[in-house]
From TrEMBL:
PTM annotation, UniProt: The conversion to 3-oxoalanine (also known as C-formylglycine, FGly), of a serine or cysteine residue in prokaryotes and of a cysteine residue in eukaryotes, is critical for catalytic activity.
Catalytic activity: an aryl sulfate + H2O = a phenol + sulfate + H(+)
Name listed for the protein in its UniProt record: Arylsulfatase
Organism: Actinomortierella ambigua
Family membership noted in the UniProt record: Belongs to the sulfatase family.
Transmembrane intervals: none
GO molecular function, one term: N-acetylglucosamine-6-sulfatase activity
Length: 584
């Protein structure tokens, strides 16, 4: 594919966004967006504590949470579950970095698990810990504590704490003992490496967490952030003669016998006979019966491995209660990215933008959070930093790519400050199937997810020039690629989705939070009512107004030049709509 000059309208868009970016350079801090009645939430002067349970590769779509009775008892029933919570990059390292920085991977440029395009070394080289949530909390007097997996690439020689944890408690799992369930290796700030052969990782993390909570209480160290990150239900990963081997996660001995009848839900997209996908997935052979059986076994191993995490959650919450701190603590339960098993014939893993890989658990309980509710407000890991800052009553840096999630019972999720209808899901790192030798270098894509006002779309542009469009209202399992048909029947819809993608793929701060403001920079009188309130285009529904058809039709399309395994800005461009598409 050849690079074309930008067409005028998009050039205009780009110069607007550059302008917006220019304004963001100096990291201005906004007044805290606390919402009405916020100061009453805690009912006391002190700042709340935060405990974050961060698991690894835990699915939402196969209902793994339903197999965790204690998480249900202590968090789901006592708090709110956000059912439309997503990661914006389906891989541990990019995803965790987005969580702590509040930025999309295209802004952190952490796009892979390990060096050169990701991992702890690239994280430190880019000094991402100069400007991230733990640092802002520390500056506000928080004691930050971390136990478990941070990101890939924390090794015995590269175990130093990032900023925000240097003077407090930093106890990461280090390679090669991150994913070895009965052979974990921990490091501490300055202390020795601790290898605990024969001890079960989650139980060790549980003991360490309890001891830490006791120390914090004894020392009256308050307020605090405590991150507890066991690696279940991630595969066990070990290294042998230069090879990386993935095997199913290992449960604690006491849980080995559970869930004998559980198996991967046979959803309509599980190992289908026919499929309508981009070429690398389209051409996957159907999984054999043997492979299906292996996936069911892996599914059971995953659920069993989560049981120790379930017990850990209960222990931590009970201890918090013993210390009289439960009422002043927000407890969040989430994971880094989702996981698929047999979906669209893909054996097992993550890395795609399909729902199984990106829609993930997010539960929160704490002061002011509604109990036993489900909330379908759209939220992502990029919303996490703003959410925590707001709950802590702290200002929100303007460069954050998403606003706070409306987590409090009093929040009006339709208020402009919470409105989040759309986000990008992006990926550059190729794909592989865990426990198989299969690799694809074509798993490079930018996609957009849009919800609300009756719309529920997924639109994706691939490095191969292929496209996908799913209308999830009609096709929740993303089985029928509606791109070609829609191009003929509703080209105006593709025009909008592609324009939105074009903004989101390079957005930053305000332009991520309100991408429509880039496409419709001028406020327009509401419904032509003279003197009526000004109404901006704020949603896909507003943008679908016929009066904008010509404008959207005139915009060029997003395309990759070719498939590259990192974020090279010169590989991602706009091209004029090609005549064959219009002629279809
Ligand atoms: C992202 O990082 C890679 C190195 O990993 C670098 O080559 C590339 O230019 C960076 N991309 C952007 C847009 O800065
Ligand atoms: C608590 O205080 C003890 C003794 O001063 C100290 O060794 C320990 O590091 C402190 N722990 C925390 C979590 O602050
Ligand atoms: C994958 O894991 C299954 C167990 O779930 C095992 O039987 C199989 O041999 C493994 N395959 C490879 C290539 O490691
Ligand atoms: C569509 O846009 C036109 C022109 O801006 C406006 O007069 C009209 O009210 C809009 N329609 C809707 C349904 O918003």
């Amino acid at each position: 594919m050849k690079a074309f000059a930008l067409l005028a309208p998009l050039a205009a868009i780009l110069s607007i966004s550059k302008l917006a970016l220019g304004q963001l350079q100096h990291d201005s801090i906004d007044a805290p967006d606390q919402g009405p009645g916020f100061h009453d939430v805690h009912g006391r002067g002190s700042k709340p504590n935060f405990i974050v349970f961060l698991t690894d590769d835990q699915d939402q779509r196969y209902n793994s949470l339903d197999y965790m009775p204690l998480v249900n008892k202590y968090i789901r029933k006592e708090g709110t579950e956000f059912t439309n919570y997503y990661t914006t990059s389906a891989m541990c390292c990019p995803s965790r970095v987005s969580l702590w920085t509040g930025q999309f991977a295209h802004n952190t440029n952490i796009t892979d698990e390990s060096a050169p395009h990701g991992g702890y070394s690239k994280f430190t080289e880019q000094k991402l810990d100069d400007n991230w949530l733990p640092g802002w909390l520390e500056a506000a007097g928080y004691s930050n504590n971390y136990i478990g997996k941070f990101i890939n690439g924390v090794t015995q020689s590269r175990k130093y704490a990032p900023k925000g944890f240097k003077n407090t408690h930093w106890e990461p799992l280090v390679s090669p003992g991150i994913y070895t369930f009965y052979d974990p290796i921990f490091a501490t700030n300055d202390g020795p490496i601790e290898r605990l052969t024969g001890k079960y990782q989650t139980d060790v993390i549980s003991d360490k967490s309890i001891k830490l909570l006791d120390d914090l209480a004894t020392n009256k160290t308050d307020p605090f952030l405590l991150v507890i990150s066991p690696t279940a239900p991630h595969d066990e990963v070990w290294f042998d003669k230069g090879r990386t081997i993935f095997t199913p996660p290992v449960p604690a001995k006491r849980h080995e016998h559970l869930f004998k009848d559980a198996r991967v839900p046979r959803s309509p997209n599980f190992n289908p006979d026919d499929q309508d996908k981009v070429s690398w997935i389209q051409t996957l052979p159907k999984l054999t019966q043997d492979e299906e059986a292996q996936l069911d076994e892996k599914f059971r191993s995953r659920l069993r491995s989560l049981q120790a995490t379930d017990e850990l959650v209960e222990r931590v919450i009970q201890r918090l209660e013993d210390h009289g701190q439960l009422d002043n603590t927000y407890i969040i339960y989430t994971t880094d990215n989702g996981y698929h098993l047999g979906t669209h014939r893909m054996y097992a893993g993550k890395q795609t933008a399909y729902e199984e890989d990106v829609n993930i658990p997010f539960l929160i309980r704490g002061p002011g959070v509604a109990k036993g509710r489900q909330n379908d407000a759209v939220a992502t890991h990029t919303h996490f930093a703003a959410t925590v800052l707001r709950l802590a009553g702290l200002p929100t840096p303007d460069h954050l790519d998403a606003p706070s999630i409306p987590v409090l019972a009093q929040d009006d999720r339709n208020a402009a400050s919470f409105q989040s209808e759309t986000f990008a899901v992006e990926f550059w790192a190729g794909a592989f199937m865990e426990n198989k030798t299969f690799r694809s270098t074509q798993n490079v894509y930018k996609s957009v997810r849009v919800f609300g006002n009756g719309n529920n779309f997924f639109y994706s542009v691939w490095c191969t020039g292929e496209h996908e469009l799913y209308d999830l209202t009609k096709d929740p399992y993303q089985i029928h690629n509606a791109y070609a048909k829609t191009l003929v029947k509703k080209p105006y819809l593709i025009d909008r989705l592609d324009a939105l993608l074009n903004v989101l793929r390079t957005c930053k701060g305000q332009t991520c939070r309100d991408p429509w403001s880039v496409l419709h920079p001028i406020e327009e009188p509401n419904g032509g009512n003279k003197g009526g309130p000004l109404k901006k285009v704020r949603s896909l529904k507003d943008a679908l107004n016929k009066s904008y058809d010509d404008y959207y039709a005139s915009l060029p399309r997003f395309a990759f030049k070719d498939c590259r395994n990192y974020y090279d800005a010169s590989n991602e461009l706009t091209v004029p709509k090609s005549p064959p598409q219009e002629d279809l």
